[in-house]
Design goal:
heterodimer, A: 12 helices, globular, B: mainly alpha, ABC transporter involved in vitamin B12 uptake, BtuC, Arc Repressor Mutant, subunit A, Diphtheria Toxin Repressor, domain 2, 3 domains, 3-stranded antiparallel β-sheet, 18 helices, 3 strands
């Protein structure tokens, strides 16, 4: 049963991340996802200090604010100060992340957040945190519900906003000409990335979210050029990584999140080599 | 301090080669190398660990390169993949080592956050030596590195071994990261490379100066960070170093002369002020031209009616002009002074000369030239003005048959 819950949460998060990550990669914003996933840390810590609990909602809000702030800062540095894009990303997220860690150390006594936990999470604890209603009915692990909720929300977002996202992703000029709010979709997507990061954060940690965000969609992108196929394939790769990762972790007694990332990398490697070989042989 | 300084130097080159985030990827990729080195050697001798770190760091660079070359993925995606996968493997190995119950593993996770204050004497010697080597290499190959950073094609043409130099540069980057990680840890290593270089870039255009400033930033932050961590032992060193660095750099971004954001805002404000003043002056001239006399008083509503201006803007312009003694206020009305009239004539002349130029030399229709002249009249320099006059042979009328006023 425990294995089932862990794999379920892993897959849910993997699919959510894979869907968002596809857009990030196509928008050439892969590293922005990385930056956000690091930069939400101070948001989480501040939310925790203010609310005094590990409730999900304040954390989500805190992180979402920081996530959007990150993108605003990056834009500010790169557009207004003419700094290179990659440099402004690097400055912003390391700075915010440093603030986050300093905050944690400052309030180490009060914060029940551990540096390690923040960084690489512990999905293995998922089954321990059960959501038991007042009447004593066991609804299963709390994280499963949160992760499912997130996935539903994202599916809704992508389904409703498919057109807007599609046009602003592939042809920004055209979208502007049509009067579609490019900035709106940009920030909506960034907000979604921040949300996903926070939800994933408890289970997989701030850094490995990036692996979920980037690697499966990149793998899918090697195979197909079609957005719908890419969304679908990247979800599949995400799920395979989650399942494979769990068993690998059990096998060598290591971190599950790390193992999932390793499997995702392995998948990428395999697909990459196959595409290379196929390129050599003209069909 | 040495760590901060050496990373800053190397960072300048990564920054200029637009490969800032590569440092981040290397930093993450080093983790599995460290773990593997520990598993193989069974000890925490920093030399072994650095060799391990070095190997995987290099591997990550090669892979990023290979991915961007052979697939349609962009380099940032490739960096993201390498970074997260290598780090995932590293975490997997690290936790596996921790769970294996090997007593000597304690402290291996220091690589994640770094703690410069807890380094042993041996560590300090080794890292210090490496940092010095890095600095020496940069000084030795300064010219060559500079060339391949700014103009690799030219470097190739004059017969420099570009590949070898790039290899050297990559090597010292990896080394700098491997060493710097000790101080600030995996995640924040990128800051040590990128942040000082970006900050220094705002102060100068010269590479040598930029390196010096970046180095100073790195050294100051390294010192401050370690000091804070020393007086308040619960404070982590790395984040504080990065904090100091970021503050220095963000300060530079705002306050640097010429290139800083404040300086830019100031220039923008100044230009806006100038354009507003000149437009209001022109307004007086146009009205005077229509009535045949410039000595008539104008009320705000008349002024507003004849040009598309917001009332707040107009009032601001009027008051600014009064300060310049180009306008006088008579009750509720405004009168243009002689010096104001001269200035207005100058602007009108520029406007009409430019229209003339566009019409005659570029063969634009008279009804197409106004908007362009409206923009350029504010920025034509006296030298250009003279040239225009000569070039057009002092015309008396513009394409719209309006008189071009010359100063008496």
């Amino acid at each position: 049963m425990e294995a089932f819950w862990i794999i379920l949460v892993g897959s849910l998060i993997a699919v959510s991340c894979a869907l968002l990550g596809s857009y990030l990669i196509l928008r050439k914003m892969a590293m922005v996802g990385d930056a956000i996933s690091h930069a939400v840390l101070p948001g989480i810590v501040i939310a925790y200090l203010l609310s005094g609990s590990r409730e999900t909602l304040p954390m989500l809000i805190g992180a979402a604010i920081l996530g959007v702030l990150t993108t605003v800062l990056i834009e500010l540095f790169s557009k207004k100060a003419n700094l290179q894009m990659d440099a402004s990303i690097g400055i912003t997220f390391t700075w915010l992340f440093a603030i986050g860690i300093i905050l944690i150390s400052l309030f180490a006594g009060q914060v029940d957040l551990d540096q390690d936990c923040v960084l690489y999470g512990e999905i293995a604890y998922v089954p321990l945190d059960l959501w038991i209603t007042d009447s004593g009915y066991n609804l299963g692990p709390r994280t499963v519900w949160i992760a499912s909720g997130l996935l539903l929300l994202l599916l809704l977002f992508i389904w409703k906003g498919y057109k807007g996202l599609f046009i602003t992703t592939f042809n920004e000029e055209f979208a502007k000409a049509l009067g579609i709010g490019v900035a709106f979709w940009h920030y909506a997507l960034m907000g979604a990335v921040s949300l996903t990061t926070v939800v994933s954060f408890e289970s997989v940690g701030a850094i490995l979210v990036v692996a979920f965000l980037i690697v499966p969609p990149a793998t899918a992108y090697l195979i197909t050029n079609e957005l719908k196929k890419m969304l679908f394939l990247s979800s599949i790769f995400g799920i395979i990584s989650a399942i494979g990762g769990y068993y690998l972790a059990v096998l060598i007694n290591g971190s599950i999140a790390g193992a999932i990332a390793s499997i995702a990398g392995l998948l990428f490697l395999i697909v990459w080599v196959i595409t290379l070989i196929r390129k050599r042989q003209p069909i | 301090m040495i760590l901060g300084a050496s990373a800053a130097i190397v960072g300048c080159f990564s920054f200029l080669r637009k490969r800032a985030l590569v440092g981040d990827a290397i930093a993450h990729s080093i983790l599995p190398g460290v773990c593997l080195a520990f598993m193989v050697s069974g000890s925490k001798n920093p030399l072994y660990l650095i060799i391990g770190a070095f190997i995987t760091g290099w591997l990550s660079l090669l892979l990023i390169d290979a991915i961007t070359r052979t697939t349609k993925l962009k380099s940032d995606t490739a960096i993201g993949i390498i970074l997260s996968v290598f780090f995932g493997v590293g975490i997997l190995l690290l936790t596996s080592i921790q769970h294996s119950g090997n007593a000597s593993q304690a402290g291996l996770d220091k690589f994640l956050f770094g703690k410069a204050a807890s380094l042993t004497k041996d560590d300090v010697y080794i890292f210090g030596t490496i940092a010095l080597i890095l600095i020496a290499v940069v000084i030795l190959f300064y010219k060559e590195f500079k060339l391949i950073s700014f103009n690799p094609d030219y470097a190739k043409v004059i017969g420099l071994p570009v590949q070898f130099l790039e290899f050297m540069l990559a090597t010292i980057t990896v080394l700098a990261v491997a060493v710097g990680i000790q101080a600030v840890g995996v995640v924040l290593m990128a800051a040590l490379l990128i942040t000082p270089a970006s900050g220094a870039r705002f102060w100068t255009d010269k590479l040598s100066v930029m390196i010096l400033i970046a180095t100073a930033f790195g050294a100051i932050s390294g010192f401050l960070g370690s000091y804070i961590s020393y007086i308040a032992p619960s404070m982590p060193t790395g984040p504080w170093i990065v904090m100091c660095l970021s503050m220095l750099t963000i300060g530079s971004i705002w306050f640097a002369p010429r290139t800083g954001m404040l300086a830019k805002f100031r220039v923008q404000k100044e230009n806006q002020r100038k354009i507003l003043i000149e437009n209001v002056l022109k307004l007086f001239y146009h009205l005077g031209e229509k009535d045949g006399t410039f000595k008539k008083q104008r009320s705000t509503s008349v002024l507003l009616a004849s040009r598309d201006l917001r009332i707040k803007e107009l009032n601001r312009g009027l008051h600014l002009l009064k300060k310049e003694h180009w306008l006088r206020k008579k009750g509720d009305n405004w009168l243009i002074t002689q010096s104001g009239l001269n200035e207005a004539k100058r602007i009108i002349k520029l406007h009409r000369l430019w229209e003339m130029y566009l019409n005659q030399r570029l063969k634009l229709e008279p009804d197409h030239v106004h908007n362009d002249a409206e923009a350029i009249e504010h920025i034509i320099t006296p030298e250009l003005e003279k040239q225009l006059e000569k070039e057009l042979n002092y015309p008396t009328k513009d394409p719209h048959e309006s008189v071009i006023p010359y100063a008496e």
